[in-house]
UniProtKB/TrEMBL annotation:
Known pathway: Cell wall biogenesis; lipoteichoic acid biosynthesis
Membrane topology note: Multi-pass membrane protein
Organism: Lachnotalea glycerini
Protein name per UniProt: LTA synthase family protein
InterPro entries reported in the protein's UniProt record: Alkaline_phosphatase_core_sf, OpgB/LTA_synthase_biosynth, Sulfatase_N
Gene3D superfamilies named among the record's database cross-references: Alkaline Phosphatase, subunit A
Length: 682
């Protein structure tokens, strides 16, 4: 046994590990070059559409050049003296933020056409400062310039790859608030098809090249003595403290006019650089007290409304927020084989219907349900933040509580997927839900693309309704978030039938065509659900809406919108935030087509039309809606038809928007001082 141990020690030496790493890297680079040149359709000279492309050619030259240099680095021997080795190591250490930054931004230009040379020098300097903080943090921890350079390279290039895929899938670049959605993203990532293109090849080989360069230099302790290291640590603490104060916790970046529109973060990335823009979005997570806010102000607003003293209508209420459900032909018409939602389009009798504007595109589903359930607006919160993950930590007012106070039972939240997405397992009880039904209750349900179908989902709704009615005659409430139409629309599922075809080659997109077919599946499932409740004697209302439009390719959206997204006006961009809704009843209600409304008003608006008693907050929302019919994370429409930014102090609606902001602040952020009479029935 001892002989074996000694033999292992002889084999596993530092020198042998170095040799193994060198040859392994050589093999990887060789395979990589073969895949790039021969396996990727020879993208050295041709872009994906078969046409000569200067950027693709330059990308290929850089990739092959970096690969060749990497091989050369691995083959040559480091004959530098210790002194020269240390000098080169420190030189690489100090210039690595610059090298990594320019290499990174060249990669990112494929996302938002960033031109590094057009970025102002002071913004470039700020980006270097941000990278230096990462570099120095690793340096102080490891006491190694080599590890610091390698760590910086890996961190920022991994960020680049993630940002590239996120933008490709949802059409919006990463911002700081996305950190809080990591769990949800990990749940749904398997539904997307990861791809490797020339941009991924580029970032991979650049990473290997920089790491190989750092590894070629001999290691040494940067600060061998503690009497040198302690002052360095003190200087580091001072430097990073100043950095966080200036870049995150103060208004200094705003004073320097560095602002990022979070619904179009790539515009900021293009102007200020990726890292400065990302750090700037960290400041938007902090919610500040609104101008003129006081608890007395909220109490006065509450006193101006009264609760109904008589019993209101109490129909059974079934709310369905259908994943990625939208009517894309309302954005712009394009030729298709047949109507993809004929039944929903046909609903007229006893139906309130229209289009609602949401605050998210292609993802962050929970923000639409948050607006519907609570009446709060994402337009008055940090954009791209997810309130379920950031702000709801204790009992929180919602329509669930107001319905429970009117003797509703069931009070079920349902989502045929994992329970931990968007922190629902914790948040739903705080919103008043008494039961949360998730994927565990759908074990034998029919699936498409490995997701529970809407038909199976709606059958479960019927099952829960019948179970509730067997136990109580009280009105029933259920809120359902579906899963069938979730993103990742390229599929090989043999059970998936192409029900809709795009008939114009110009508009053809495989993902878009599959998506429209999924909407047809949903329409058929909705018809079956409505047919069931038509035969139910008890008054019942089905409220149905989409959470956001699908994250289809930006190229396809550019075609149906008629121009590139970067050329859209803010009002034109709103077309990507529009989803259909309807409220159908199995008894007589006043039919109506709603021209403009947003998700934060929708529940109060429909409940009012149905004669259900409202909280004072819901009454307040209806008053705001009369003046500001639409508001979301991008801006708001006034009743005068003008579209306004929330920061526009000249807007005729600035005062009422600020009043709404104050009421919402009291509801969400003023700990222990919420005016409950405003938000609950009693």
């Amino acid at each position: 046994m001892k002989e074996i141990s000694n033999r292992i020690k002889e084999i596993i030496t530092k020198e042998n590990i170095k040799k193994f790493s060198k040859y392994l890297t050589l093999v990887i680079v060789a395979i990589y070059l073969m895949l790039f040149v021969f396996g990727h359709k020879c993208y050295i000279t041709f872009a994906e559409n078969g046409m000569m492309n200067k950027d693709t050619l330059l990308n290929a030259v850089l990739v092959i050049g970096a690969a060749v240099l990497t091989v050369v680095l691995l083959l040559i021997k480091n004959n530098l003296s210790d002194r020269m080795n240390m000098f080169v190591s420190y030189a690489l250490f100090f210039v690595s933020p610059v090298i990594c930054y320019y290499a990174f931004e060249y990669f990112q230009k494929s996302i938002y056409t960033i031109t590094v040379l057009s970025i102002r020098k002071r913004y470039l300097f700020f980006n270097f400062v941000i990278l230096s903080v990462i570099l120095l943090t690793i340096y102080i921890i490891t006491n190694s310039t080599k590890v610091a350079v390698i760590g910086l390279t890996l961190i920022i290039n991994l960020f680049g790859v993630i940002n590239y895929y996120v933008y490709s899938f949802r059409g919006v670049a990463l911002v700081a608030a996305d950190v809080f959605s990591i769990q949800t993203a990990s749940n749904v990532v398997e539904g997307y098809k990861l791809f490797i293109d020339t941009h991924i090849y580029y970032i991979f080989i650049i990473t290997v090249f920089i790491i190989s360069l750092a590894c070629k230099l001999r290691s040494f302790k940067a600060l061998p003595l503690w009497k040198l290291r302690i002052p360095a640590i003190i200087c580091y603490i001072i430097y990073t403290s100043l950095f966080f104060y200036v870049f995150v916790f103060s208004n200094q970046l705003s004073n320097w006019n560095i602002n990022v529109k979070l619904y179009r973060p790539h515009e900021g990335y293009r102007k200020y650089g990726t890292f400065l823009s990302t750090v700037r979005t960290m400041g938007y997570i902090i919610v500040e007290k609104p101008e003129g806010y006081s608890v007395k102000q909220i109490e006065d607003i509450a006193d101006s409304y009264s609760l109904s003293s008589s019993a209101g209508q109490t129909p059974n209420i079934i709310v369905i927020m259908d994943e990625a459900f939208s009517d894309l032909e309302t954005v712009n018409e394009f030729p298709i084989s047949e109507d993809y939602m004929p039944f929903i389009h046909s609903l007229q009798e006893n139906t309130i219907k229209g289009n609602a504007y949401v605050s998210v595109f292609g993802g962050n589903t929970a923000n639409s349900e948050f607006e519907f359930l609570t009446g709060n607006s994402m337009g008055l919160l940090p954009a791209n933040s997810v309130p379920y993950q950031l702000f709801i930590k204790k009992q929180f007012p919602s329509i669930v509580y107001s319905l429970k106070q009117q003797n509703y039972v069931g009070n079920i939240g349902m989502h045929p997927f994992k329970s931990n997405g968007f922190n629902r397992l914790t948040v739903y009880p705080l919103l008043g839900f008494e039961q949360f039904i998730t994927i565990e209750k759908f074990q034998n349900a029919d699936k498409l693309r490995d997701k529970v179908t809407d038909e199976a989902n709606f059958n479960k709704i019927i099952e829960m309704y019948e179970e509730s009615k067997s136990q109580s005659d009280n009105p029933f409430f259920l809120f359902n978030v579906t899963m069938q139409n979730h993103g990742g629309f390229i599929t090989t599922d043999p059970n998936f039938v192409q029900k809709i075809k795009i008939e114009d080659e110009y508009y053809y997109d495989e993902g878009a065509q599959n998506y429209l077919s999924l909407i047809k599946y949903t329409d058929e499932a909705v018809e079956k659900l409505i047919k069931y409740f038509e035969n139910v004697e008890e008054p019942t209302v089905v409220i149905f809406f989409g959470d956001h439009q699908p994250g289809l390719s930006q190229t396809w959206y550019d075609k149906i919108l008629g121009k590139s997204e970067k050329d859209l006006t803010t009002q034109e961009l709103m077309e990507k935030y529009k989803v259909p809704f309807f409220a159908w009843a199995n008894y007589d209600i006043q039919e109506e087509t709603v021209d403009k409304i947003s998700m934060n008003y929708l529940s109060a608006y429909i409940m009012n039309k149905l004669g259900i008693n409202l909280t004072k907050y819901q009454q307040f929302l209806l008053d705001v809606h009369e003046q500001v019919p639409v508001m979301n994370s991008i801006g708001y429409w006034g009743v005068d038809g003008g579209f306004y930014d929330y920061s526009d102090t000249t807007s005729p609606y600035y005062e009422i928007i600020n009043q709404y902001r104050c009421v919402q602040y009291n509801n969400m952020h003023d700990k222990g001082k919420r005016v409950d009479s405003m938000f609950y029935m009693n």
